[in-house]
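pinging the channel bc i need a second pair of eyes. not urgent but kinda urgent?? the chain im working w is below, pasted from the shared doc
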Amino acid sequence: MTKNLPEIFIEVDYFQKNKAGNQVCGDSFMSQKLKGEGRIIGVLSDGLGSGIKARVLSAMTATMAMNYTALNETILRTARSIIDTLPKDEVKQIGYSTFCILDIDCFGNTKIIEYETPSFYLFRKGESIKIQKQRIPIERPDLADSYLWISEFRLEKEDRLVCFTDGVSQSGMGSEKLPAGWESQIEDYIQNLLLRQVGISAEELSRRIVIQAEKNDGYNLIDDASCCVVYNRTPRNLLVCTGPPYDPQNDSYLAIRVKEFRGKKVICGGTTASLLARELHIPIKTLPQQADTKEPPISSMDGIDLVTEGILTLSRVERILSEEEHGKAQAEGAAEQLVKLLHNSDQITFIVGTCINIAHQDPNLPVELEIRRNVVKKIKYLLETKFLKDVEISYL
């Protein structure tokens, strides 16, 4: 049976732009979902200066912070190890990188550790919420008045966390409109944006904030600008069916699961589509396609969001997700449409039929190496590791 899906989903996304004239961004962002614990951890770091040197510092910081946090090391040990490990700048003689660590468990319990970074914002029901912070001094010979700030609270449904580097908060500094920078006005900007676009995604909100920072600098960023947004919301579910069941007696069971699934639905494979059309009494219609395209045609069924060919489409989806092949600009391609649905979904269920398709099976290989199942496993791995999706495969 399909697993019980949780009522909330933690969406984490970020957007960044380089300082004008730089090819490399000096900020780094990393995130990871620890499936065994149901935790999500993320780190936003800003290295000293800009360009490649700053990137090295921020990447080292983010990597160390992620590893120590995943191992539940103490905050002081984490900070101390990062500070002592970073290479020193030849001119300023300090090894310096800011960081903001996010640690959210499966119940929404959240811990945020900030070091020399602009303060994060928490928005609840469109309003900014003030969170009490604990200040911990950090002794270091190369920098006076250095502190860690620790916040702990429960993330509620529809809450948004926003954190960013000083390329955002200091944007516009020295201009007539923002002589002291944007820091004092960011809160109002985000609040007004959330009031106008209640359901704005984490991806879009982070992008809008960085683009506005670039605008503040006259479209020439004075510093690298990065923004991370965490959005606690109702999950978007997707069901992908590919291949008929091994036992034809399970055809009706598959049809029931498709009919009762709450979310978007995709069918990959002509045989699977015909089976479901028969069981659900829904006709299949082949949609017109461009004459010059070599891709298999897309079909339609009432109540199904996408009906495609099977193994060719799934194989191309796997190549696009692994960046071996870039999706075409046209939106008509079956693989591109499926990739878009996967990106826009949070919890994805694959129902993989185990009936052998002679066209795809080498009789000299064991059944486990059947092409369709291997491709789905690769897609599952990419979705979980690269895009932090919750993915389940059910064999039938």
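so The CA atoms of residues 252 and 279 lie 6 Å apart. and The longest helix spans residues 51-70. — does that match what u expected or am i reading it wrong
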